[in-house]
């Protein structure tokens, strides 16, 4: 499938933007970095995309007869990816993710920002003195993203920033791991710590739904599960292959009163829950966000993958950092310096050493991911906590052991599958279960 990038014709030129920035600097005497803080935000403008906020029924047949309106702009192709490419051409990235092999040989890419907070606490207060997204340049922000006031999606190419009503924004990740790697930062000026709440998670689902492309996924890492910045954000990127996790077999555990189906991954090295369905998008969103809130309130680190345009969500409690701290991870795994966050757990391995790339195999990936997973016993315990929190009826015995889901697992042959890609240096796509 070819992906075509279409630019938004109405978008401001760089020249216009510079003029506006210059004006802001003259008026407000900014800090010179044209950031998002008070020093520079006065008079700033950014594109604004608003989505139709009515609680759409997820059930497709109910949408028949609902006339499909043309979106005001092609959200994924023009806005997310078109603007991302624009920033690539303007040289805002630390390296070129589409041609990074030489960088790898020079050993320069993917320098880790040193983690500036404790790894054993999932919830920690925001610290304005540490790096956060209000310090990024306005040129790194692609657009503002929020719910529409009326009944349709809208696009305003040159919208003022309402500082009093902290906007959610989509910004580039200056150290991309894939094409179109962006960050969704809910209510950026409110400086929320990395912590899921209902409203922010729903916003992330809306972004996945607006993109409407199964190859554009969002991910979330909690503190203690390899988030590196304690300022609320989701990551997202475009990669046109199915992730191994998306092909893993599942077993149905239960369906909530609101129609959200919850399953357990089977035959995958990391134990996790799968959420789909629900009578409305909000039902699905709340089931997942309430589960996340339960985990973080219990200080259990976790990762979330939002797949299939927001219709399929994976939740992984994990314990790798804890094992690391306890000295329980083997030196060979530690040597790879791979941090198993949401993308790695989903089967998209970001490898740092050339040697690891060359030796990459399903076995090696599986060995790493097995260390990430909770034990079966602990996973059952954690599921118990989650189901209590979301008030889920499981069965009369309180037993989570399992009815057969519709995706009954066959013997799934696990043969290694490398998906060749142009960024081979950066990424191994290892199919863990196919
Ligand atoms: Zn500033």
Automatic annotation (TrEMBL):
Location of the region described as Disordered in the Swiss-Prot/TrEMBL record: 1-28
Biased composition (Basic and acidic residues): 15-25
Location within or outside the cell: Cytoplasm
Major location category of this protein: cytoplasm
A GO term, aspect molecular function: GDP-D-glucose phosphorylase activity
Signal peptide positions (record): none
Span of domain GDPGP1-like C-terminal: 244-391
Database matches in Pfam families: GDPGP1_C, GDPGP1_N
Domain called GDPGP1-like N-terminal: residue spans: 76-237
InterPro entries noted in UniProt: GDPGP, GDPGP1_C, GDPGP1_N
Keywords of the record: Cytoplasm, Guanine-nucleotide releasing factor, Hydrolase, Nucleotide-binding, Nucleotidyltransferase, Transferase
Cellular-component GO terms for this entry: cytoplasm
Membership in a protein family: Belongs to the GDPGP1 family.
PANTHER family xref list: GDP-D-GLUCOSE PHOSPHORYLASE 1 (PTHR20884), GDP-L-GALACTOSE PHOSPHORYLASE 1 (PTHR20884:SF21)
Identification of the protein by name: GDP-L-galactose phosphorylase 2-like
Organism placement in taxonomy: Eukaryota, Viridiplantae, Streptophyta, Embryophyta, Tracheophyta
